[in-house]
Design a protein that fits this description.
By secondary structure, the chain is an alpha/beta fold. Helix content is 48%, strand content 14%. The structure holds uridine-diphosphate-N-acetylglucosamine.
Amino acid sequence: MKVFLIAGARPNFMKIAPIWKRLEKRGRAFETKIIHTGQHYDYEMSKIFFENLDLPEPHVYFGVGGGSHAEQTARIILEFEKLLGRETPDLVMVVGDVNSTLACALAAAKFRCAHRQSPRPLIAHVEAGLRSRDFLMPEEINRKLTDHLSDLLFTTCADAAVNLKKEGIGPEKVFFVGNVMIDALVQYRDKAKNSKVLARLGLAQNRGRSNYAVLTLHRPENVENALNLDQILSAVREISSQVPVVFPVHPRTRQKIETSKLPPVSREAESSSLILSEPLGYLDFLKLMMEARFVLTDSGGIQEETTVLGVPCLTLRETTERPITVKEGTNIICGVNQEKILKEARAILAGRAKRGKIPKYWDGRAAERIVQVLLSSTRKFML
Ligand code: UD1
C-alpha cells in the first residue's frame, strides 16, 4: 500500500513520527512518503522536529509558507493536486486540524471526483472527532470538514465517536486507537530527560526540584486582540513575581508583542522573572514541561501532554476540543480572565493542584493500532 503521510505545521510532526516508524517496521507492506507542505518553515518550527524525532527528510516539500488562510490553503491544494496527478497513492493520511490537514484531504477528495477514481486514494484522518463547537476557530472548520471527507477516522477518546455519530458519520469508519502524540511522548521521554534546556535558561534546580511555570501563546484570538493579550500578560506578570515563567515565543506572538502598544515584555524580563526564548525543539520543550510546576497555554496538544505528564495545565481559552483533559486530566479552562488565571495559579503554588489520570489508550501504542486497522480494513475498502 502506497501511503502519503501529510505534515505541515509544528503540531503535526510529533504525530506523524510514530506512524512513520510503525509503517516502516512493516517493511514491504507499505511504501510511505512524507509530504511536508511547508506551512511552517523556520528551523525552530519545523526542521528541529525532524531531527529530534529521527524522521527522514520529507520526500516532497511544497514550501507554501504563510499568508491568509485562503492563500495558504489554496496553495497547498494546488501543490497537492499536482502531486496526486504525478503519483496517486492508495492512502492519504492527514493528522490534526491545521490548514495543511484540510487542504490535503480536500485535494484528495476532489481528485477522486475529477478522475472518477473511487475510492483511491482513501483518506484517513488521525485525531478525528474533536470538537470545540467554536466556529470562529479555523481549526474547528478544518477538523469538521476533514472528518466528513475521510474514509477512515482514527480517534483519541470515546467522546470523539459520539461527536461523529451526531454528525451522521457511520461508525464503521471510526476506530478508537488512542493518541499518537502520546506515542511520541512515551518514546522520547527518557531522551528528553537529558536535555540541557533548564541550565541554558538559567533555571537552577533546588534539591533536584525545579520551580518555574511555562507559558505558550499563539492563538490569533489571544495574540491579535490587544485586550485579551493585555489580560493574559498582566496575569503572567503577576505570576512571574512569585515564580519564574518561561515563555518560548511563537513567531506570530513575537511580532504582535513587538508591534503592540503594550510595554515590551523583553524589558520586563530583565527586571522580573519572565524568561523569553525562541520556540523550542521537541526534546527541550518536553523536558521543560516535565519539570514545570504548571503550564499556561492556548495550545491544543499541550493540554494532552500535560495530562499524561501529570503537570497542572491552565488553558487560556474559553473552550476546548479536548474535554477529556478536563474531565480526567490535569487541565482547567481559565479563558483570558485575569482573576481566574491568578486564582488557579495561586492554588497550584499553594500546593492545591488538580490531579488527574491518564485517559484510555494514551499508552504509546496508538500508531500500532492504526497500522493494524490499515492492514485489516483497507482490503475491504479497496475491493
Ligand atoms: C498553526 C495552526 C494551529 C497550530 C499552530 C502551531 C492553522 C489554521 N493553524 O497556526 O492550529 O496550533 O500552527 O504553531 O493551521 N511563521 C513564521 N515561521 C514559521 C511558521 C509561521 O514566521 O515557521 C509566522 C508567519 O508570519 C505566519 C504566522 O507565523 O504567517 C502564522 O503561521 P500559520 O501557519 O499561518 O499559523 P499558526 O498561527 O502557526
